[in-house]
Amino acid sequence: MEKMFAGARLRQLREGQSMTQSDLARLLEISPSYVNQLEHNGRPLTLPVLVRLTEHFGVDAEFFAPQDIARLVADVREVFADETVTGSASAGEVDELTAKLPEVARTLVALHRRYREAVENIATLVSEQGMDRAVANQPHEEIRDWFYRRRNYVAELDEPAERLAAELRLVPGEVRSGLASGLRERHGVTVAAAPIGADQHRFDPAARVLHLSPALRPGQAAFRLASELAMLEAGTTIDRLVDGGGFTGETARRLARIGLANYFAGALVLPYRVFLGAAERCRYDITRLSDHFGVGFETICHRLSTLQRRGTRGVPFSFVRVDRAGNISKRQSATGFHFSRVGGSCPLWIVYEAFGSPGKIVTQVAELPDGKKYFWLARTVDRSVGGHGDPGKTFAIGLGCELRHARRLVYSDGLALGADAAVTPIGMGCKVCERPACPQRAFPAIGKPLRVDEHASSLLPYPPLG
């Protein structure tokens, strides 16, 4: 067994039970000094001690497994990269803080986010632009953060949705009819196709009628049926999750309910084990999965980013949707990949190249400044919202995983993934990127002095000092 150092997790478990080190030592039949060494990572957990811990505390061994803290490290580094924050910390100090005191690091990140929100709200009020930023923007970020903390997996909804799919006997390709039958038989709801303006669907609870836009494709219609069924079947669970989510206002709470209902819908249309099995068999071929389940490219990618059930995990993916202007309208992650809140995203990222090859899947091996490598694929998707001459919507969908998982994907076939891989260095946004020599830099890095010489010029847009 690989050496397992789990001091922080062991201390968290002990303190959660209001136990002293001596209490824990008696329980594990070891000395108090041994417990102290375990909690300070002076000694690794042995198999006998691990077995006793799992038996006495009712946790599985995975609880003590080394945690992927790459995302948390990136969040903490962003705190110290903020030019308005007094003080600094080296990369080594940030790594040590995050590894040894992860809860302190998370608290620091949370406080910094609240601070940034307060600064932005004050700036909005002072500018007298008549927009309440706390109401207009922040609720969406709260929802994204909530899913981000959960690594984009919600067992309380995923498992009931899978059971309901089995009860309704949903069959790929015939999901819409199965959902309509479920709504009618279980809740007395009739489905009617009728023009409803710009809405995709609208439920009339008094008449028990669910109106669907006839413009919806079969997969879209199925998803809308599933999202309304989620409210009827799992409303109590959704309310409980929202109540415990710490959302700050009614707008955020309503958006959270919609987000959780959509999560349930995705898990209902694409049941966990059935979908994961199909994904593994076809090596995560998104086109084949889309054809088999009768849903769109984006829906498949989004569901792939949620397959993190303990004991039956799929490839841990990050999912992102961007527009031509670089705005990220959706972002979810089950990996250590970090989406920056400062300075946009990197122009060298493959998701932007996808706009140059509409409808074609493009791939990239990307390396972050910390040396971690990811395999990314991206493709554009189009949505028509009217007739001829009406503007439509075009997005690029990106799906990425750590490079070590890339060989599980059909898209890696024929590509060099080892030391000779063609790697593109990217960052998490110019203002926080640590790459001084990037010719694509749009902004100088926060807190980094620039070389400014009236009598010299550079190929770099923002040459660093020294």
UniProtKB/TrEMBL annotation:
Keywords: DNA-binding, Transcription, Transcription regulation
Gene3D superfamilies linked: lambda repressor-like DNA-binding domains
Pfam families: HTH_3, Peptidase_M78, ScfRs
All residue ranges annotated as the HTH cro/C1-type domain in the record: 10-64
Entries under CDD domains matching the protein: HTH_XRE
Matches recorded under InterPro entries: Cro/C1-type_HTH, HTH_RamB, IrrE_HExxH, Lambda_DNA-bd_dom_sf, ScfR_C, TransReg_Diox_bact_type
Stated family: Belongs to the short-chain fatty acyl-CoA assimilation regulator (ScfR) family.
Full protein name: Short-chain fatty acyl-CoA regulator family protein
